[in-house]
Amino acid sequence: MFGDFLKRLTQPDPEPLADTDARLALTALLVRIARSDHHYAPEERALIDQLTMDRYGLDATDAARLRGDAEGLESEAPDTVRFTRAIKDAIAYEDRLKVIEALWKVVLADGTRAKEEDALLRLVTNLLGISDMDSAEARQKVEAQS
């Protein structure tokens, strides 16, 4: 189902993503981090829906539909390195920085920072071209909001 999208995303010089494609790719990244500890908690799914509603102005039905599509894409997406690098090449830095903040929200949603989530988030931060300092600031911002 997502073959053409993934092919476009992972080609050597991807074009900037259209808004709907960027939404899908970034939401799939949120799903990947939520699934990384092998416990895809209802709180994480609800938070992903809320994040997409807030970020994209979606209603609950459209947010759930986007998450469902993103879950399918995440299942079919290549390894995290290729998938994340493709997102980096197709999405502006400021948007990638906001994604790191959203990823921290998902990691912290269930009240537990699993080592798998931490490891994946460090990898994703690096592959998205975000500095460790920017990631730490994003985490602190999220923790302060909790």
In short:
By secondary structure, the protein is mainly α.
Description:
This protein has 146 residues and is mainly alpha-helical. The protein has a single domain (3-145), classed as TerB-like, CATH 1.10.3680. 76% of the residues lie in helices and 0% in strands. The protein has helices spanning 3-9, 19-35, 42-56, 60-76, 80-90, 93-109, 115-127, 132-145. The longest helix is centred in the N-terminal third of the chain and has 17 residues, at 19-35. The mean pLDDT is 86.
Give the topology:
Blueprint: H1 3-9, H2 19-35, H3 42-56, H4 60-76, H5 80-90, H6 93-109, H7 115-127, H8 132-145
Helix pairs in contact: 2-3, 2-4, 2-5, 2-6, 3-4, 3-6, 6-7, 6-8
Give structural attributes:
mainly alpha, TerB-like, TerB family tellurite resistance protein, DjlA_N
Q: Could you name the CATH topology?
A: TerB-like
Q: Quick one: overall form?
A: globular
CATH superfamily: TerB-like
Task: Compute the CA-based radius of gyration.
Answer: 14 Å
Helix content: over 70%
How many domains, as an integer? Answer: 1
SSE succession: HHHHHHHH
- How is the main sheet built? none
Distance between the termini: 37 Å
Overall residue-averaged pLDDT value: 86
Percent range for β-strand residues: under 5%
Number of strands: 0
CATH-defined architecture: Orthogonal Bundle
**What is the CATH first-level class name?**
Mainly Alpha
Indicate the structural class: mainly alpha
Q: Number of helix segments?
A: 8
InterPro entries: DjlA_N, TerB-like
Protein name: TerB family tellurite resistance protein
Organism: Sulfitobacter aestuariivivens
Domain Co-chaperone DjlA N-terminal: 23-140
